[in-house]
Write a structure and sequence with these properties.
Largest sheet: 5 strands, antiparallel
Radius of gyration: 24 Å
Strand content: 25-35%
Structural class: alpha+beta
Number of helices: 13
Number of domains: 2
Helix content: 25-40%
Amino acid sequence: MSVPGFLLFVLLSFSVFGGELQTPSAAPACGDCHRAIYDGWKNSAHATSMESWLFQDALKLAEAEFGSQARKVCLDCHSPIAVYVDDLGLVRKVSWEGVTCDYCHSIREVSTTAMNPRARVEFTQVKSGPSRNAASPVHGTVFSPVHTTSLACISCHEFRNAQGLSVLTTYTEWKNSRYAKEEQSCQTCHMYTIRGNVVDPRVKRTESKEINLHQMPGSHSIDQLNRAIKASLYTEREGDRLKITVKVKNAGAGHHVPTGSPLRQLILEVRAEPYGGVQYSEERIYSRIVADQNGTPIQHEHFAFLKGAKVLSDTRLAADEVRAETFSFKVPRARQVRVEANFYYYYSPVAGTGARGKTKFLSFSRLVP
């Protein structure tokens, strides 16, 4: 870097930060220099984990029914900085930033010895990350082995509640898959590398390099869903019945589909529409149904996290699992039939708001003579 370029970088940094970063720092302070990374993160579920209306509705219900302790349980993952700095009233801007820059890059190690994994964070002028040769005149840097493994994600994607129910099991699902054995971490799929600038060119001119995608696409990404689920459609006439088989494979997710909250579902809808005849429709739902101590199925997410006690059924697709789903409809041979298969990802943490959480991501059809 030329001397004028270095001075510009320092002057810009000091004009924004006043000579030293606040700790913990708000995301725009980080984004002033790391703009490409910030822009990706800003469009992520991590960035909106606090402001999401789905979460806010669930949070209000949880607090109203279970009190302030419920608020802490929810914020522990949706705003971990708020919990660490005891800002449960969400007064500070950084507490509204969800899973924000300075939380992840202040993680020093992760402990898995207690009932739930716990990250040890240090909000200082030294930022941790996966690069061994990172350097900055604004803050210190330290290489973190944790950031190169799935342990960086475990404290929010593995959770057991006070009743002993494992509500979130994504890390365990991955650990039991071939992906873990092949050393493909969460970051392999959700923070894959792209060409970009670690530091914005206006403050530091360097060649673009491979950086981790901080948009972290997951179940809300249609592209990611299409990578995960592969399917094929077969039909067969059996007298006056039409047999439809859909082979479904979890071909690209290193964990169950769906994973995370028990309120999430993968839905396969099969439709048969004979010309001039009765139309048929059936579904297969891939999900995990949990119940309270009385065996009553739980319909609200906050109940699963706070009062869930047992798993009634689990029909989700494990990594690499293949299933053949069969359907049979009464359709006379003389009629042509349009057969359609549609896949939906469904997520409604608060019953009655399903339309806000249903995404169609895969569809194919066939005309059967």
